[in-house]
Amino acid sequence: MNYKRIVIKVGSHVLTENGAVCKERMLELVRLISELKSKGLEVILVSSGAVSAGYTVLPLDRLDIGNKQALAAIGQPLLLKMYQEKFATFEILCSQVLLSAADLDSKKRTALARHALDNLLAHGVVPIINENDVIATEELEFGDNDQLSAYVTDTFEAELLVILSDIDALYDKDPRAFEDAVVRKEVSEISQEELDAPTTANNEFATGGIVTKLKAAYFLLARGKKMFMATGFGLSDVRSFLLDGVHEGGTLFKK
Ligand code: ADP
Predict the structure, then answer these.
(1) Domain total of the chain
(2) Which of 6, 41, 50, 200 could form an SS bridge with 160, CB 3.0 to 4.6 Å?
(3) What is the residue with the minimal CA distance to atom 16 of ligand 1?
(4) Ligand 1 atom closest to Cα of 208?
């Protein structure tokens, strides 16, 4: 394997099924991470799903920002408890790292965060990062976990960001709207026009959409990093890419 440290970002669609956290898919992800770790790879996980997890025990209206903060506060420990149980079956410790944009806004604070992450990884612990949605206000927020995961990849000096999405690859147009959409297997450049397209998150839990993924890729390409986007519904494409070095499904962004 060519990588030493990678970031995996899992979207809310992948982790959720009928309004609840999908334990089977979470377990599959945790199993993959344990295999990657056994090959000597350091893995940082950026996970959405706190609001959805909160909603399972207190179904408040998520569109209200105050409720969303409450759901994130309730759901984050529930989500982490699930991860902890799954990782424990592979004898792996995981940890919660909540970030807000202010944590990475100066050299000093970034160095502190880097030191903390390095230390966790040195002890074999999987850091599970999420935006601190409970207190994030507009000035303090990353916006979404696609962007957060790109910053995390850069700040914590990983070589690759893997985005596990509800779609199996980047297409030349939205495959849900156009039957003749074609997969773009490798992308080395992203145009301003693509970055300016309106965001198209397609369910009530998602705020991302494909544009935020393109923005993440754009940010990383400019910094000499790679991004691989594949489906999180079944991990065979990401497994073969990471474990066998074979690019079957998914889109690789690299210069
Ligand atoms: P996630 O929850 O995994 O972060 P989103 O649902 O927010 O992902 O974004 C992915 C969705 O973006 C896809 O399901 C698809 O409907 C839509 N989409 C729009 N344009 C494209 C495109 N060119 N290629 C792939 N997906 C696209």
Answers:
(1) 1
(2) 6
(3) 176
(4) 7
Q: Looking at the CA of residue 184, tell me the nearest atom of ligand 1.
A: 24
Selection from 34, 4, 19 nearest residue 235 by Cα: 34
Which domain, by its residues, includes 110? 5-253
Can you give the three-state secondary structure of 80-105, one letter per residue? HHHHHHHHHCCCCCEEEEEECHHHHC
| Mean pLDDT, 10 residues at a time, the chain of 255 residues | 92 90 96 98 96 94 90 95 98 96 91 97 98 72 88 97 96 90 97 77 53 95 98 98 97 97
CATH number of 55's domain: 3.40.1160.10
pTM of the model: 0.94
Predicted confidence at residue 138, as pLDDT, reads: 64
Q: Which tokens go with 53?
A: 């997890």
Give the distance (Å) from ligand 1 centre to CA of residue 149: 16
Residue that is written with structure tokens 């970002």 in the block: 9
Q: Residues lining ligand 1, judged by CB closer than 6 Å? A: 11-14, 165-167, 170-171, 173-176, 200-202, 206, 208-210
At 204 the pLDDT is 43
* Alpha-carbon gap, residue 189 to 148, rounded angstroms: 21
